[in-house]
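Reopening this ticket.

The earlier resolution said the output was attached, but the attachment link was broken on my side. Pasting everything inline this time so it's all in one place.
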Amino acid sequence: MLEHVLNGLYYGSILFMIASGMTIIFGVLGILNLAHGELYALGAFCAFSIVGFVAGQVAAPTGPATTIVFGLVVLAGSLAAAAVLLPVGGALEAAFIRPIYDRDEVYQLLLTYGLLLVLTDVMKFVWGPSPVDVGVFSAINEIPTTELVGFSYPSYNVLVILIGVAVFAWLAWFFDRTKTGRIVRATAINREMSTAIGVSTDRMFTLVFAIGAFFAGFGGAMVSIGPSSASLGMGLSWLVLSFVVIVIGGLGSLKGAFVGALLVGVSSRVVTPYYPQLELAVPFLLMVLVLLVRPEGLYGTWGEIQ
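Inline output:
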C-alpha cells in the first residue's frame, strides 16, 4: 500500500506540473487551451535532444558523488528543455491567442485545437514519427534516496515528488510575494482597472501564457527522462486529466490544482492494482463526487489565481 501511495504521489506530481500551467492560463486569460497537452509533449521531445546532449558531455556515473552530479546535470537539461517553451508560448499567445480574447469561446477552442494539430505535425517533422528515449533513467535511479532509510523505491520517482512540491512552493511564492505575481493576480481580477493604473495587459498575458507553457514543458521533460518515451499523441491523456484536476481543485486555484492532482494520482494508483477495470473511471468518479458536494471545486475562486 505504501508503494501504491508513493506511485500516486509521483503520478500526481507530474500531473500537477502540467495542470498548474493550464490553471494559470485559464485563471488569468480565460482560455481553455486544448494545445496544452502538445506543449507538454514538445517539452518531452526537447528534453530528448537537450538532456541527451548535456548528459553525453559528462562521464557516466561511477559512484554516489558522480551520480548526484549526473542527476543535477540531467535536471539542468530538463529546465533548459522547458525554457524552450517560454518563447514558444509567448509567440503563440502574441500571434494567435491575443486576437481572439473578445471572441466567443468556440473560436478559442477551435483555434487551440488547430494549434494542437500544427504542433503535432511540427514534432513529427523534427523528431520523426517513432518514439524517442533519453536513456538516463537507470543512471538517475542510482542516486541514493530511500535506500538511506532502508526502503527500496525508485529514486527517479522520489525526485519527481520533491520537484513537484518545489514547483508548488515556487508558484505560491511567486503569486503571493513578488510584485509581478501580484500584478498578474490583479489583472486576473480586474483587467480594466489594471489597464487604468498603467499595467500592460498584453505583456502580462504573454508572460502568463509563457509561464504556463514552461510548466507544461517541464512536466514533459520530467516524464521524458524517466521510464517513458517521448511520442506523438502523448499529450492527449494528460490534457484530459489536467481538465479533471482543475475542475476538482477549482478554476483558477493553484492550491486546488495541487490537491486535485495528488487526489487523482493517489486514488487512481491505489484503486487500479485491485480493480484494474476502474483505471480510467477513477479520476472522473472523483470529479463527480467533488462537484456534487462543491460545484465550484475544492478551492474555487472564479477568476483569481490563488
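Reporter confirms the inline version is readable. The mean pLDDT is 88. The radius of gyration is 19 Å.
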